[in-house]
Amino acid sequence: MPTSALRGFRDYLPPDAGARSEILRRMRAGARRAGYVEIEVPCVESFELYQRKSGEGIAAQAWMFHDKGDRPVALVPETTPSLARIFADRGKAEPLPVKWFTVSKTWRYEEPQAGRTREFLQFNLDIFGVPGVEAECDLLATAALILDDVGAEGLYAFRVNDRAIAEGIGRVFGARDVGRFFRAVDTYRKVPPAEFEGELEAAGVTRERAAALGRLFRDAGHGVAPREFLAYSEALRAQGLDATAWTGVERLKGLFEHLERAGLADRIVFDPTVVRGLAYYTSTVFEAYARGGDGRSVFGGGRYDHLIELFEGPATAAAGLAIGDQTLELLLKGAGRWPDGEPPLDTYVVVVDGTHALAATALVEELRRAGVSADADLLGRSMSRQLKEAARRRCRRALILGLKEAGPDAVVERDLASGAQRTIPRREAARPA
Questions:
Q1: CATH 3.40.50.720 fits 347-428, yes or no
Q2: SS3 of 432, please?
């Protein structure tokens, strides 16, 4: 019988399980402060949802099987198609804009590596009904709020691009297969230059032009600051960027102006290598990336204006992003900012001996009902062992029952950080600090 989790799956024990819970609590709170409301989606959907709506990559990674009715279904590999399905069904009844967030377990059958498991949590933010760049600004500003709240302030920045620009660059350099060109560009930061140029050649770009495109991307480095974006765009236009592609430049100009007003100019760059691999993105695309080390992507998203129509819903502008738990954990742990676990217990009730066990049970219940986190020994241990347990659990204080100097109607309150203690009336023991 197996004694460990399957490859690509993880068990989460204390303190990590508590830390994850605390991270999600902060993320939910941040989303709600920005006006997003939570919905839940199923963990199993029709396989066709991903086969037709997410593109080949996600469909190939889906955990697909046939149910008892011989219907092809899949464990959810990403949440956006589920959200689109729900909105298409309810769109006519929803006052716009709609701002949803979800916390969902998702599954992809891919090679496990650092920051990538076969089962993971995704935190999604999505906006429906906003055709302008105000949607992308709200998403990125909310993502920044959430990342700062979980402890990642200063550790990340956003790379932004527009697919109209990416397609225009493809035309400039002779790409004949847009989908394959996007998939090649998506590998730019993940494979050696020679392999990247080989992928471009498979999309119809000649070897000479592939090398030139590689130089163009290298010139952009880790991204072009918003204040330098127009100069970089004009250089692209000089190389042949056409009017269709320039619509993407105009959109990003507007987005950068909004993001500057939102106070995010210092963490935004234009990056021509960001295209996002999913087929349904239509214009703006973006990623958060780690500022230190290898610049690993932390999350991604973009605009998907035609996805609702594919589900026979009304034509609806839409944009969203998904933050994965694994990459966020790597970012925070790498910077020493991962939470210690669940918030510390406030009070541990300690008894001198077993004759006070019932009194301890009563006091613990009073504390909990008063909103104070509290616990007591359940194993009949000595007083010294109980105090050690209270310290191990990072309690703020111990309430000691049964000390003779306290008297029958009082308890001793010990501050577990300083060791200072005082006698207080029993009736005051359950009051919150």
A1: no
A2: coil
